[in-house]
Amino acid sequence: MGIIKDSATKHPALATFGLLFGATIWGVIWYPYRLLEEAGVSGAYASLLTYAAALLLGGLLFASRWRDLFRSPGTLLLLSLAAGWTNLSYVLAVIDGEVMRVMLLFYLSPLWTLLLARVLLHEHAGRRGLLVIGFSLSGAFTMLWDPAQGFPLPRDIPEWLALSSGMGFSLTNVLTRRATHLSLPEKSIAVWGGVTLLALLFLPFTSAPLPGAMEIPLAYWMLMLGLAIALAVTTLLVQYGVTHTLATRAAVIFLFELVVAAVFSYLVANEALSVREMIGGAMIVAATFFAPSGGESAPPRND
Asked: Do the beta carbons of residue 247 and residue 174 sit within 8 Å?
């Protein structure tokens, strides 16, 4: 971890890039998962296959680091469960729920991050941090909230999944930043393994049939392979970024996903961007530039 820390100190933009890259990938990844769902590969099954492939790819890349996983099994297990539930519940929610409602409930996560970072990391957002979080959340509400649908409280299972996914997302990021004794490969393997495990446990409770290998067209196998590679790269960059960025700042940067999702839906689904969405997106982008940097807070403690 010494090399990673030194690199982050000399090149803080790299950590921010990792977070923006992750936000970009998650802003578009709902689309291929929906394509797989339409092809008969359920969200849980697709998550299992793609993350298992990412785990295999990452496991081969970091073959020499597997023995390190037994140094802190408790921390890795907690990180695995938090990350696993975050990713699995998000995919299930965005496939079965109303996308705008799902994203709004998920992106209440800066509120949970603010609380968790204060308790677990002893990070003080400060007046500037609170203002930035409030401004970014206002941008999210401007983009997503439909007054006709009322206050964003969960109304069905997909929306409860979205809310819990946002909580898991905050916990995952805070745990990642707290676990300074773990290496980047360890954290990444924990994420891939966590999603794979929870998706496997979740499958027996789904009503959707599981198609055999020969029933899935080659094009969709290639799509899942592409997803696995994208997820592997994204996990590495995001884990790096979260490790070296204030948890509250990372939560604000991740809101960039909403901007990407809005633009992507316009490009692939010809959904026009409203003035309200453009204003909200601009607020989120502006907030990422004003969020406090890691240098303004004491480093996370492990006590």
From this structure: yes
